[in-house]
């Protein structure tokens, strides 16, 4: 690629004539390249030669040089254009992007604004109206002249609040004289919408008095005149509707017709609660001396902490993986000859290089490490290459010839259950079918006063961790070292040893630290390819998936369809519930069957329902790969349960708190499956707190928004349940002057290190800085089980409880021997051991001076119920989520104004870590609710990267998140602090759904809530 910098405009024009592409700010090109557009061979930098600046003429016209940046326009007080420029891209783009480039780009957000300002374009070939230039662009744009009107309006709707491709942009300009429209200009454009003036409506408006216009008729007229296409993300109907609502709003602005729509009234919880509960507010301000900076935080914030994927050494080979070319196909042959012959390639491996079991999977080994006969999803691994550079490895991938025979696809889980459906594996597509029936369900429904029924649909959410899957592997003196972020090193070792056919002792697996997991690194990811390549080449090999590859190959939250029918009597008492859940597993089981099982265990939420009939099925399809994700099925089920509760409350005429209080489980009541449940629940107290909250009060929203408040209760099982092995080893020792904890769990960003520091220092009195955590290394730490199912916090706490007193005694004894003082006179203080009678905690002997002390080890089982008929949890955590939302009347988007979370999970071990878990979970849950869906069509990803997979950004995050914890435990409760990794996410979808229903009168049932559905609900109005 060559960039020319001519000195004159003539030389520039000559270069363009010769085929060079003109570039001003270069930002549109940057965007097009990121989407795969071809890069021009020769570019010519035109920016410095073009006019720049804004000049105002006496006739009111304004001329803007083509090289003027959007940032300068934003600051330039140009009518309409300055406001509009604020909504284009991000500040760093606006500082480069030019007005000429925006027009040259041809699809920019500013075009509708320029069209309604009657822009004239002056080019090197003359002056012409913008519409004409857009139809036949010729010549270099030198400047633009615009004619402002009396009144302007503008609206951009993107995929979400932050900058993203525009769904549609609309702009208007009106001149009004004596209350009558004398000139009107309306335009739409942006993204895939061709920029266009709405001439027919413009003409019709002239002579009309805005006060006399009928809003619905006006909308309809505009709607019919907008030309807009559908795309994967929004329909043409939605685009037209948004444009119509926005333009009608602008035209009617200031008239009596532009009234705010009020949400339909419904009973609200009564705030008078007799005994306000004692809750701890979690925040830096309220925390006082309970607030500690996480030890891993400064380096993470500075970006200086190396992850396993950051590891670099001279001579490391680079690996790349060849993924399936089809979502479902037979492999006839794989030819790696040409790839192997490429200079710089050190190894090309396929299924033929797998000496051991060519399959893996946490629950059932159904996923090939390297596909041999068939591919089942687009992320399947077919071959891998290790080469001297990434470019050589990628070139080698392109030389691998795979002969496929495409097979019929199955992408709908319900269709996959048909007898004649294509089979993803050899047998049935049904993996598990969990049924439970209790009581006389049919009779209860037959006599119930109210019944509500609907299907709740949840998305294929992506974990979206910052660090994509990757790491490195190397032969070492004992065998093989594999360093890849994971959530259970010992289990990764077991699975890898089977694949490599070597004893587990020959493998050392390092899994921490990890740049985020959320369940997405629970299953093996790139370990088999890295290990085999390191083994074959005898060299260190590294690999990190690009984001696009991670999107295609990584496991996702299982999309679910939950049909739920719930009945209550005339007073709101629940009498029966029927649930039918179908979960899309994708091509391989991983943990999907357990996710379904967990969802089913949360079928009734924290309520008592005497008659139940439930069924949950997990089904193979060619839709990617499903698996573990924070919430693990309970959040999907809670969404359905809690919306059903609100809908019944509506039917009974009760407020949402009252119906919940009426049906809430009592402490000590058996769990949903009939199992015993650990004491300490605090649901009643939290409902009191929720009821007393000021979140129910009226609050201000923007003129184009409708306010709503919703609540959701939830209980969330922790630990793996009764059936799987759920044990943990843990050890504590004094080593090199530090109290060292050896634990096989993983620090993924969730705050395990700080929780450990808090637990140890609280228990034995040392400083947090005296503690060293050794996590995620099978060579140094014992097997503590998986870092999943919110079990980490309990494992750390129990481990410390079991070992710290003995280690403390050993330390005191060692100090007593060294100092010649009786143990009774000594105590552990920050830095070492001090005299108990001393005024200041100054150590008489430091931990370093005491030398190393042998580890105190413990082995324990995560607390379980005695229920064995199926998998059941024993320890639950409880919470109430409250959401305050503002629903936009123009585009149907939902803004979360505030989220409150009341939790009951025992004592807070570390406040910052706990709060971080809750805030992160709430926002992650909000993403699943409002924007996140890894869309697939015909087995291919539609959302291939983060530009269209819209995770919440800071602009989508509620400005207020209030987390309060009910820390007390029942007298004699032996189980201590509960794990809270999942608690925050469980109820957030339901709370937001109920808040949206409060605002618009209808319950959204498909997540993420499509703005077009919400607009439709608004037109329906009444609650159902
Ligand atoms: C992260 C990101 C976000 C973005 N978000 C938005 C958005 O929200 N809305 C939006 O509208 N756009 C967006 N864009 C696209 C783009 O940045 C803008 O449209 C921008 O205004 C283009 O200006 P530029 O000067 O950088 O154009 P360039 O990239 O330099 O050029 C764009 C095109 O115009 C031609 N051209 C440039 N100058 C002239 C001229 N004087 N005469 C004739 N042809 C010319 C070029 O040959 C090229 O074909 C985004 C881009 C990025 C990278």
Automatic annotation (TrEMBL):
It comes from Pacificibacter marinus. PROSITE patterns: FAD_PCMH. Residues 1-151 form the FAD-binding PCMH-type domain. The keyword Oxidoreductase applies. Signal peptide: none annotated. Residues 256-277 are annotated as: Disordered. One of its GO terms (molecular function) is iron ion binding. This is Putative xanthine dehydrogenase subunit D. Its EC number is 1.17.1.4. The lineage of its organism: Bacteria, Pseudomonadati, Pseudomonadota, Alphaproteobacteria, Rhodobacterales. Keywords: Oxidoreductase. Pfam families: Ald_Xan_dh_C, CO_deh_flav_C, FAD_binding_5, MoCoBD_1, MoCoBD_2. It comes from the Bacteria.
């Amino acid at each position: 690629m060559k960039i020319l910098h001519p000195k004159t405009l003539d030389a520039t024009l000559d270069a363009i004539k010769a085929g060079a592409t003109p570039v001003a700010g270069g930002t549109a090109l940057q965007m097009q390249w990121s989407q795969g557009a071809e890069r021009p061979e020769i570019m010519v930098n035109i920016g410095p030669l073009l006019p720049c600046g804004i000049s105002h003429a006496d006739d009111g016209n304004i001329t803007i040089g083509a090289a003027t940046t959007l940032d300068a326009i934003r600051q330039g007080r140009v009518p309409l254009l300055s406001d509009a420029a604020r909504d284009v891209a991000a500040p760093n783009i606006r500082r480069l992007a030019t007005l000429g480039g925006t027009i040259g780009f041809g699809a920019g957000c500013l075009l509708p604004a320029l069209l309604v300002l009657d822009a004239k374009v002056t080019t090197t070939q003359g002056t012409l109206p913008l519409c004409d230039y857009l139809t036949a662009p010729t010549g270099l744009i030198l400047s633009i002249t615009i004619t402002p009107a009396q009144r302007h309006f503008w609206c951009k709707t993107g995929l979400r609040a932050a900058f993203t491709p525009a769904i549609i942009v609309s702009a208007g300009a009106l001149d009004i004289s004596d209350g009558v429209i004398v000139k009107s200009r309306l335009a739409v454009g942006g993204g895939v919408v061709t920029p266009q003036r709405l001439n027919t409506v413009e003409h019709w408006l002239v002579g009309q008095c805005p006060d006399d216009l009928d809003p619905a008729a006006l909308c309809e007229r505009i709607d019919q005149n907008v030309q807009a296409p559908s795309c994967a993300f929004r329909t043409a109907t939605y685009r037209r509707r948004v444009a119509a609502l926005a333009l009608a709003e602008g035209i009617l602005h200031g008239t009596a017709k532009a009234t705010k729509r009020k949400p339909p009234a419904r009973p609200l919880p009564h705030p008078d609660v007799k005994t306000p509960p004692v809750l701890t507010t979690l925040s830096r301000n309220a925390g006082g001396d309970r607030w500690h900076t996480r030890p891993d935080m400064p380096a993470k914030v500075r970006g200086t902490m190396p992850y396993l994927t950051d590891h670099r050494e001279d001579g490391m080979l680079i690996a790349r993986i060849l993924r399936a070319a089809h979502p479902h196909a037979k492999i006839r042959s794989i030819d790696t000859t040409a790839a192997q012959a490429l200079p710089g390639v050190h190894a090309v491996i396929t299924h033929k290089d797998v000496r051991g079991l060519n399959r893996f999977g946490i629950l059932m080994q159904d996923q090939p490490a390297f596909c041999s006969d068939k591919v089942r999803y687009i992320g399947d691994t077919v071959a891998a290459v290790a080469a001297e550079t990434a470019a050589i490895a990628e070139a080698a991938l392109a030389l691998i010839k795979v002969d496929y025979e495409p097979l019929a696809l199955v992408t709908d889980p319900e269709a996959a259950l048909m007898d004649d459906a294509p089979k993803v594996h050899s047998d049935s597509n049904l993996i598990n079918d969990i049924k439970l029936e209790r009581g006389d369900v049919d009779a209860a429904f037959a006599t119930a006063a109210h019944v509500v029924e609907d299907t709740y649909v949840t998305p294929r959410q992506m974990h979206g961790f910052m660090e994509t899957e990757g790491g490195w592997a190397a032969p070492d003196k004992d065998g093989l070292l594999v360093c890849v972020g994971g959530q259970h090193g010992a289990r990764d070792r077991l699975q890898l040893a089977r694949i490599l056919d070597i004893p587990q002792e020959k493998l050392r697996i390092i899994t921490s630290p990890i740049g985020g997991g959320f369940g997405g690194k629970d299953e093996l990811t790139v370990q088999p390819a890295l290990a085999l390549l390191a083994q074959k080449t005898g060299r260190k090999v590294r690999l990190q998936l690009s984001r696009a590859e991670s999107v295609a190959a990584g496991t996702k939250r299982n999309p679910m369809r939950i049909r739920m029918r719930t009945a209550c009597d005339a007073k709101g008492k629940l009498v029966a519930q029927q649930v039918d859940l179908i979960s899309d597993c994708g091509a391989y089981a991983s943990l999907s069957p357990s996710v379904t099982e967990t969802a089913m265990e949360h079928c009734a939420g924290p309520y008592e329902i005497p008659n139940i009939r439930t069924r949950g099925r997990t089904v193979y399809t060619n839709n990617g790969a499903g698996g573990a994700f924070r919430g693990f099925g309970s959040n999907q089920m809670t969404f359905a349960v809690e919306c059903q509760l609100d809908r019944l409350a509506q039917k009974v005429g009760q407020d949402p708190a009252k119906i919940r209080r009426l049906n809430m489980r009592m402490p000590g009541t058996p769990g949903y499956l009939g199992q015993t449940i650990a004491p300490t629940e605090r649901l009643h107290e939290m409902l009191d707190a929720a009821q007393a909250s000021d979140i129910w009060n009226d609050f201000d929203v923007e003129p184009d928004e409708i306010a709503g408040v919703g609540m959701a209760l939830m209980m969330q099982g922790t630990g793996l349940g009764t059936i799987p092995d759920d044990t943990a080893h843990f050890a504590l020792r004094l080593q090199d002057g530090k109290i060292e904890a050896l634990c096989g769990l993983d620090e993924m960003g969730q705050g395990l290190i700080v929780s450990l520091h808090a637990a140890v220092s609280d228990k034995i009195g040392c400083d947090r800085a005296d503690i060293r955590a050794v996590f995620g290394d099978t060579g140094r730490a014992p097997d503590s089980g998986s870092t999943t199912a919110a079990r980490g916090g309990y494992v750390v706490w129990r481990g410390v409880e079991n070992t710290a007193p003995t280690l403390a005694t050993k330390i005191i004894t060692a100090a007593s021997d060294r100092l010649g003082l009786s143990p009774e006179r000594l105590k552990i203080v920050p830095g070492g051991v001090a005299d108990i009678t001393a005024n200041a905690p100054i150590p008489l002997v430091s931990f370093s001076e005491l030398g190393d002390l042998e580890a105190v080890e413990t082995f324990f089982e995560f607390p379980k119920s005695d229920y064995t008929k199926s998998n059941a949890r024993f320890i639950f955590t409880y919470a109430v989520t409250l959401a305050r939302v503002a629903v936009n009347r123009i585009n149907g988007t939902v803004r979360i104004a505030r989220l409150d979370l009341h939790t009951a999970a025992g004592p807070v071990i570390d406040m910052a870590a706990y709060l971080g878990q809750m805030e992160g979970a709430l926002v992650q849950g909000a993403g699943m609710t409002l924007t996140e869906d890894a869309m697939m069509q015909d087995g291919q990803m539609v959302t291939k990267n983060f530009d269209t997979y819209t995770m919440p950004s800071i602009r989508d995050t509620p400005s207020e998140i209030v987390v309060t914890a009910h820390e007390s435990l029942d007298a004699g409760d032996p189980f201590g602090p509960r794990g809270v990794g999942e608690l925050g996410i469980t109820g957030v979808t339901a709370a937001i759904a109920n808040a949206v229903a409060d605002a618009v009168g209808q319950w959204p049932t498909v997540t993420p809530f499509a703005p077009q559905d919400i607009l439709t609900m608004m037109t329906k109005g009444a609650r159902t």
